[in-house]
Amino acid sequence: VWNHAKENSMLGKNSPQNPVKNIFIEKPSQSAASKFNKLEFTDRFAKLAKKEESLIFGKKVLSIMLRTTPHYIDPRTNRPLTDPNYVMECAIESVRNKIDDYDSVLVVTQIQPFIDRFVQEFGSKCIFTDRQRLKTDADWKGGRSDAHYKMTDKEYELEYQNVLLDVLLASKTDHILGSTSNMFMGALIMNPNITFGSIEKLSDFGGA
After folding, report:
1. Which residues, in sequence order, are CB contacts of 29 under 8 Å at separation 6+?
2. What is the structure's pLDDT at 117?
3. Are 8 and 142 in contact (CB under 8 A)?
4. Among 27, 60, 72, 78, whose CB has the most other CB atoms within 10 angstroms?
5. What is the pTM (predicted TM-score) of this model?
6. How far apart are the C-alpha atoms of 189 and 182, rounded to whole Å?
7. C-alpha distances in Å from residue 182, one per residue of 34, 171, 172, 179
8. Residues 107, 115: contact at Cβ < 8 Å?
9. How many degrees, rounded to 5, is the angle at CA 50 between CA 180 and CA 47?
10. Contact indicator for 66, 128 with CB cutoff of 8 Å
11. Cross-strand pairs, 126
12. In what helix (H) or strand (E) does residue 61 lie, and over which residues does it extend?
């Protein structure tokens, strides 16, 4: 995957139109998930994962996985959303409906303003990993067709490392909320026993 990403980066290329009109998430079976349960970590990555897992240790944790606003394609207009406040409020409403049953909410996103809004709403119940995030409504830099910058191999490596850490940590919580996202699906594959649900008002949205 890493070699393919480096050799086939979409930086500077036009992103193809998303052919998916509807997405139906079906919980993977134990047998299906076992095909993917073959991860072996380096010592360095294992230490990073263990350190982040301490955030949720001994707690009943609800995860929410959020992408950049233009990632969400409104099925009524077939266009990307443009209002990050709408995405944040949809997510907050879904978490608010469930948070009383959990000790904490883990916010999985690379977007610092989303983190800030959740802290404002949920205070000490909000937990998140300690890493540098993007200050604007943008998430993963690698492979985005609208990028006007170049990434070094080290930046790519760090970004893909953080993707795996985010998905792994979310998969070890008690319940995940999300919308259209390969990271969301990845967490469900890593842990077929986890319960999950949609961000209600984004449940029928496609992904860019």
Report:
1. 192
2. 96
3. no
4. 72
5. 0.78
6. 10
7. 18, 13, 17, 9
8. yes
9. 115
10. no
11. 105
12. strand 61-65
> What is the rounded distance in angstroms from the CA atom of residue 192 to the CA atom of residue 200?
21
Q: Are 29 and 192 in contact (CB under 8 A)?
A: yes
> For the chain, how long is the longest CA-to-CA vector?
47
Residue with tokens 């240790």: 57
Tell me the C-alpha distance between 146 and 10, whole Å: 9
The three-class DSSP label of residue 178 is strand
22 vs 177: which has the higher pLDDT? 177
Q: With H, G, I as helix, E, B as strand and everything else as coil, classify residue 168.
A: helix
The residue-averaged pLDDT of 80-107 equals: 95
DSSP helix/strand/coil, 56:
coil
How many whole angstroms separate alpha carbon 109 and alpha carbon 119? Answer: 13
Q: What are the helix (H) ranges across the chain?
A: 2-7, 30-34, 43-53, 84-96, 112-122, 153-171, 182-190
Which two structure tokens, joined as six digits, stand for 91?
A: 């997510």
Q: How many CB atoms lie within 10 A of CB 175?
A: 17
Instruction: State the Cα–Cα distance between residues 206 and 208, nearest whole angstrom.
Output: 7
Supply 18's token pair. Answer: 């998303």
CB 200 within 8 A of CB 93: yes
Q: Report the pLDDT averaged over residues 121-146.
A: 81
